[in-house]
Amino acid sequence: MILVDSSVWIDFLGSSPSFAGAELRRMIADAEPFALAGVVITEVLQGLKRDVSRLEHYLSQWDMLEPRGFSTYREAATIFRAARAKGVAVTTIDALIAAIAIEHGATLFTLDKDFSRLAGITHLPLYVV
Q: What dotted CATH number matches 2-121?
């Protein structure tokens, strides 16, 4: 399973998508299985100024990978601490997204370079285009 991060969705929805937006468009056209996480949906929707309900409906079509409970949040904190110990600054949300992906055995599709650094510290697989 591929977990698509907000950075890719934002690129996809932009006026001139890069390679990541084009790849997501291909994945949608080819009906490849991918998922979102609740925090990703929040990040995408919070930046909208128009067409909110239309995009809410659009995003609701895909599977959701959610935290499984205390263990997910514990893993996110472990990831955060491990990154900090290596001098890598990450946000709590990015640590949580990484924990969700790892917990579900998902590959993360992202444009956010912080996840590249996290992949070097954890077992986070990244989707490479």
A: 3.40.50.1010
